[in-house]
């Protein structure tokens, strides 16, 4: 049973007057038409009645909270409590972590293991290109291959489920229901025509893709004044491919191995979220091609492309090893 609203100033005066006449708490409550607990509250401390009680002092100081948030990334709550010597109850640490909007739980992305030689090669590359200006980066054509599944990547199958409603499902097909492999290139304000690749590719297939898709698009935008970026896949660095690039006078960026983080076209996730958002699936390869891949590729936002390319300066600086 609720205690009801607070007593008015008049009611408080009546309570004190009747209490002075030695009426019981229950009798005073009956006369006022109020709960006796409410009457007892004012009689316990008339001067403090109606004021808000002070909140409990925080268990952690501001400095301790900062230490907790900095150490939060990979340690369990129990280990955080123990290693930081916080002496908190089991439920208190997660409550503090939930109270801040500075963090969210995400999966770690997979990255290749770099050897000392890999890191030295990355450093040498970054040292070479760190002084590239915006104009030079804007003339780099970044390229890559990508496989798209009819059913999309597993990472986009989650959703917020409302308790009590029927659970959503996605169709499951063997090997993702089929897929399409594409090759494409982007630069600061545009993109190549997208190539759809059939089967396993060899060096001659790759040279054909470059001659039919890279050169027409790049020549139309830059003439011959552009730089071509590709990763270190074997068909990209073969004798056949190198000879083709030399004959066509295509300047290619020397790219360090296992450095997908530096290739701006590795950001296929932008397209993936637009294509598969909301658990979208496709019934056929033709639908995937025309209603998703080509539709979104041909409508890439120039502002987004410019941000990708302009980030290269910062990325190269992040790779360079500081010299003493």
Automatic annotation (TrEMBL):
Q: Name one GO molecular function term.
A: nucleic acid binding
What the entry lists under Pfam families is as follows:
HTH_38
InterPro entries for this protein: Homeodomain-like_sf, IS30-like_HTH, RNaseH_sf, Transposase_5
Q: Which SUPFAM superfamilies match?
A: Homeodomain-like
Q: Which residues form the Transposase IS30-like HTH domain?
A: 4-40
Leader sequence range is: none
Protein's name in the database: Transposase IS30-like HTH domain-containing protein
